[in-house]
Amino acid sequence: MRYLLDTSAYFQGRLNAEAMLRLKELSADERLTICMPAMLEMLVAARNSRDWLQTRNALALLPRVELSDPLAAVDLHGALAQRGQHRTPPVDVIVAATAAEHGLTVLHHDRDFERLTAVSGGAHEWIIPAGTGH
Question: Which homologous superfamily does the CATH classification assign to the domain defined by 3-126?
Answer without folding.
Answer: 5'-nuclease (3.40.50.1010)
